[in-house]
User: Fold this.
Amino acid sequence: MSDTGKLAMELAEARVEQERDASVARARASLPSGGGYPFCSCGNPIPEARRLALPGVTSCIECAKARESRGRR
Ligand SMILES: [Zn+2]
Assistant:
């Protein structure tokens, strides 16, 4: 692959990340405070049942699992 093609791909990836961050920020801004966030920082939605069970939870199940398995070593 040429350097130009690689750069274009990196720019496209950065843009996707920016858009994802923006949509997460919008979702967070539109929420009443203290109700937990509907989206994890990774961009995955957090199921409502999880938010109700763990008030203020900010990570999706996958991220929570990943953090758990990292911490367990
Ligand atoms: Zn996540």
Notes: The mean pLDDT is 82. The radius of gyration is 16 Å. DSSP finds three helices and no strands in the chain.
